[in-house]
Amino acid sequence: MLPVSMQQDSLLLNLYIQPKASRDKIIGVHGNELKIAITAPPVDGKANAHLTKFLSKAFKVPKGDIIIHKGELGRHKQVEILTPRVIPEQIADLLDTRSC
């Protein structure tokens, strides 16, 4: 399993989420996942909502274009981003190294 992969026009991310962090940040590769720190606590869906908002800003897409396929209630998630307009440098680097 790769942390990041392109599937047609969509980007598929396998994530490990660190809630209640001091700031929102893409940390980097964590095993077979991409680690992302978010400030929201893992209570009542707040972390998922915050993650969606963070990813929508990072990839310049509407929140509705962020789909959580797996892991609604856990730290390990599979998220699809429909036609991202921007790909953050850390993720672009991962995509480049996979294609070599």
Automatic annotation (TrEMBL):
<dbReference type="GO" id="GO:0005737">
    <property type="term" value="C:cytoplasm"/>
</dbReference>
<dbReference type="InterPro" id="IPR003746">
    <property type="entry name" value="DUF167"/>
</dbReference>
<protein>
    <recommendedName>
        <fullName>UPF0235 protein SVI_1040</fullName>
    </recommendedName>
</protein>
<dbReference type="InterPro" id="IPR036591">
    <property type="entry name" value="YggU-like_sf"/>
</dbReference>
<dbReference type="Pfam" id="PF02594">
    <property type="entry name" value="DUF167"/>
</dbReference>
<comment type="similarity">
    <text>Belongs to the UPF0235 family.</text>
</comment>
